[in-house]
Each structure stands twice: as structure tokens, then as C-alpha cells.
């Protein structure tokens, strides 16, 4: 049993990870400022502290009071488009706030961190599948600030012996029976498709003239429950004496190593809801690489991670089941 602080534990990935950590017998405290998270998403076995991870002194106190041994850092600003028009917010929260969290951890003697990173650190890849040692050339402040914090983890490892795992998520999707995706604004494809079904809101597919078999972009989708399982394994990999983090920082892609096109996502959703879903094809969205697929073997060999829910039907189907059980999203 490990005592873990989860920042962003009221968010989509954070809450599902909290549930997985609790199920594995860990003790969990959640730190979330609820600007994008939902208190109703925090699993009942975890205690929610409403606050910012970027405030060093209170975070240090919290770490000491709770006897925290490891931090799962899921909280962040995470909208690509917003990051381009408001980069300061991303540098302040994702970089400066993140460093305040690391300083609080250092002062409180917490030497284990698992970090929610992103495929956005790669930018437009030269080739796919993308291995972890591909060049990091982010094309927006979101990806740049995630890359910068990965660098901070590496240097804290060298200077202070911090053990860290950065998990570079590809496209997270799906829901568990209790926990799902509820963002405002919602920019991601699968929720946009389901919202179109739910509310009749117009659905636009951004571009069908990409160099892919059906002309639409291809993404590597990973079920949020599988993602949570990877977090559990990553926390274990930061244990004192574990050779996987003896070098300080470990980085792993989290994807399944295959991809689905935007048209395939719509078709899967049509199969799930049982009727056609009308959409229009609009212009390309700025900054969308044609294909993003992970080379996923490191997470398999180093973390022993094997995704269990790899079909689009399981991801879209679980997301749809959650939306139907929670019309309009979380109550708060
Ligand atoms: N898309 C549409 N219509 C929509 C929404 C999305 O056609 O209404 C398309 C996008 O253009 C893209 C695909 O669906 O081709 C997937 O888009 P998402 O917004 O769902 O996801 P992204 O691939 O853009 O985002 C993911 C992660 C981000 C990360 C980014 C890196 O969710 O955190 O990859 O490029 F920054």
C-alpha cells in the first residue's frame, strides 16, 4: 500500500486512475482546483482537497500531513487551441505550477512522480509508429509545456534522485461504468460525435484530403481504463530501489500501436447507437498531423502493460453508455 496524491483527480483521466489506485489497495488523496474537474467524479474512497498544485507551501503541508509517498500529476491545462491564443496560462500552470509542485515534493521528501504527458510533445512526426526517442518538436504551447516539464523531471532526477515516469498519452477515449468524459468546451472527436447524437449539434469532420486510406486523420485510441492501469504500473516502477527508475526518469508512450480514421470513428458510433450520424466535411484543423500512432512496445516490456479494450466499439460504446446514464455530464 502506497499513499498517493493525485493532482487533477477530479478530471477524466485522473478520476479513473484514482478508482484504479483505490481498487489496488492504495491510499489516495486528490488535489484539484475544480476549474475543469468535477467533485462528483472523485471516487468515494479518496479525500478531495480543493486547491492548486502550484501553491508550494500548502502543497508541502498537504504532502507532510497525509504522509504522501508518490504523486500522480494529472492536473494541467490541456486545450491545444487555447494554448496557442493564451500561452501564458500554459507556461504558468503547466511549467511554473509544475515546478512549484516538484519543490513542494522535494521539501517534503516525496521522491516519486508519475506525470501525464502527451503525444503532442512529438509535433508532426517524421514517421509512424512514433518511438519515444523520436525528435520532440511540439507545434503548440500545450505540447511545449508538457515537454518542458518532462525535462524538469529528468533534471530533478539527476540533481535530487527523483524517480519519475512520464506517460505520453495518445488519444484517450471511453468510460468506466461510473466515470466518464465531461469537458466544457469539448474539442475531442468521440465526445463531439456523441454530442451530435445526443443534442443534434452539428458534427464536422476536419478535412478528408489527408494522405490516408479514406482521407481523414488517423489516431491511436486508448481506453481510459487501460490508461489507468498503466498509471498503477508506473507508480510501482517508481518504488525505491526499482531498477526501472534507477536512472531517474522513464518515458513511455501509451497507445495501442494501431490507429483508426475519423470516418471509422463515426462508423463505430453509428454501429453503437444504431442509426446514421450525419456530418459535414470541413477544412482541415490547423496543427492536426495526418497520422499519430504510438510505438507502444516500451510500456509493454518495461511496465508489463497490455491494453485490454482495443476496439473502437468498446471505447465508443462505453462512452455512450456513460453519457446515457449521465445525460448532460456530471451534476456539478
Ligand atoms: N476532429 C474532427 N471533428 C471534431 C473534433 C475532432 O474531425 O469535432 C478530428 C481532428 O481534426 C483529428 C481527430 O478528430 O483529426 C482527433 O481529434 P481530437 O481533438 O479528438 O484529438 P487530437 O488527436 O487532436 O488530440 C490528441 C490529444 C491531445 C494532444 C494531441 C496531439 O487529445 O491532448 O493529440 O496532437 F495534444
Short account of what is shown:
The chain has ten helices and 14 strands.
Question: Can you describe this structure?
Answer:
The protein is of the alpha/beta class and 332 residues long. It is 39% helix and 17% strand. It is built from ten helices and 14 strands. It has a seven-stranded parallel sheet with strand order 3-2-1-4-5-6-11, with helices on both faces. A three-stranded mixed sheet has the order 12-9-14. Strand 1, helix 1 and strand 2 form a beta-alpha-beta unit. Helix 4 runs parallel beside helix 5 (141-160). The longest helix is centred in the N-terminal third of the chain and has 22 residues, at 87-108. The chain is globular and about 55 Å long. It starts with a strand and ends in a 7-residue tail after the last helix. The mean pLDDT is 97. The structure holds uridine-5'-diphosphate-4-deoxy-4-fluoro-alpha-D-galactose.
Query: Compute the gyration radius: what is it?
Result: 19 Å
How are strands sequenced across the largest beta sheet? Answer: 3-2-1-4-5-6-11
**Uncertain spans:** none
- Outline: globular
> What structural category characterises the helix and strand content?
alpha/beta
Order of helices and strands: EHEEHEHHEHEEHEEEHEEHEEHH
Percent strand: 15-25%
* Main beta sheet: 7 strands, parallel
Number of helices: 10
Distance between the termini: 31 Å
Catalogue the ligands: uridine-5'-diphosphate-4-deoxy-4-fluoro-alpha-D-galactose
Q: Oligomeric status of the shown chains?
A: single chain
Mean pLDDT: 97
The percent range for helix content is 25-40%
Report the strand count: 14
Amino acid at each position: 500500500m502506497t499513499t498517493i496524491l493525485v493532482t487533477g483527480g477530479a478530471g477524466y483521466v485522473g478520476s479513473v486512475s484514482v478508482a484504479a489506485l483505490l481498487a489496488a489497495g492504495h491510499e489516495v488523496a486528490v488535489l484539484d482546483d475544480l476549474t475543469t474537474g468535477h467533485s462528483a467524479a472523485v471516487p468515494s474512497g479518496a479525500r478531495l482537497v480543493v486547491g492548486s498544485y502550484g501553491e508550494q507551501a500548502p502543497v508541502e503541508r498537504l504532502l507532510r500531513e497525509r504522509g504522501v509517498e508518490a504523486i500522480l500529476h494529472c492536473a494541467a491545462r490541456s486545450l491545444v487551441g487555447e494554448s496557442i491564443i493564451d500561452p501564458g496560462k500554459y507556461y504558468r500552470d503547466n511549467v511554473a505550477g509544475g515546478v512549484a509542485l516538484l519543490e513542494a515534493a522535494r521539501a517534503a521528501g516525496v521522491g516519486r512522480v508519475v506525470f501525464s504527458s502527451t503525444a503532442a510533445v512529438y509535433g508532426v512526426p517524421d514517421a509512424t509508429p512514433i518511438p519515444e526517442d523520436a525528435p520532440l518538436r511540439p507545434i503548440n504551447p500545450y505540447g511545449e509545456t508538457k515537454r518542458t516539464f518532462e525535462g524538469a523531471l529528468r533534471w530533478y532526477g539527476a540533481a535530487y534522485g527523483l524517480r519519475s515516469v512520464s506517460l505520453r498519452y495518445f488519444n484517450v477515449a471511453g468510460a468506466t461504468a461510473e466515470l466518464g468524459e465531461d469537458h466544457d468546451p469539448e474539442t475531442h472527436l468521440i465526445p463531439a460525435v456523441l454530442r451530435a447524437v445526443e443534442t443534434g449539434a452539428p458534427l464536422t469532420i476536419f478535412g478528408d484530403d489527408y494522405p490516408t486510406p479514406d482521407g481523414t486523420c488517423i489516431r491511436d485510441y486508448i481506453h481510459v481504463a487501460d490508461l489507468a492501469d498503466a498509471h498503477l504500473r508506473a507508480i510501482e516502477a517508481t518504488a525505491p530501489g526499482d531498477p526501472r527508475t534507477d536512472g531517474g526518469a522513464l518515458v513511455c508512450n501509451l497507445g495501442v500501436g494501431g490507429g483508426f480514421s475519423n470516418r471509422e470513428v463515426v462508423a463505430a458510433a453509428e454501429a453503437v447507437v444504431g442509426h446514421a450520424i450525419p456530418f459535414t466535411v470541413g477544412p482541415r484543423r490547423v496543427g492536426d498531423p495526418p497520422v499519430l500512432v504510438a510505438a507502444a512496445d516500451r510500456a509493454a516490456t518495461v511496465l508489463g502493460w497490455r491494453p485490454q479494450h482495443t476496439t473502437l466499439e468498446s471505447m465508443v460504446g462505453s462512452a455512450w453508455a456513460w453519457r446515457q446514464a449521465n445525460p448532460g455530464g456530471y451534476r456539478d
